[in-house]
Amino acid sequence: MKSLLAIIILFVLTLNSSAQSKPYNIVFDITTGDTATHARVIRWSKGILESHPGAKIEIVFYGKALDMVVNGKSVVQADVIKLATEKKVTFAVCEQAMQVFNIKKEQLLNGVTTVHDALYELITRQADGYGYIKVVN
Prior knowledge:
The chain is an alpha/beta fold.
């Protein structure tokens, strides 16, 4: 009986430790120009990093969300620069959306990167095991 109990305890501990070792990878999909939503996704990112320092976070921008990462237009500019330059969050802007909204790379905040196609970036991250979150107003 003691050996059965020991096996059960070992099994439960193994399950618990393997569940904790899963990576915390998340990709946020943001298209809104709503500044309260911009602040919310920064707050979420900081909260995730506080509780899971090894988390990988990417925020993909297209549509009207580009102002969040444009110098002089962003209400979260300081946070974006800090998180991006410290390599804690990847801020990935769609180059096609930049063309539509006539935004040049030089206008982007320090540390912000670009991707050719935001939708492809989103499905690639999901295929890499990232959890997908659509950020809405």
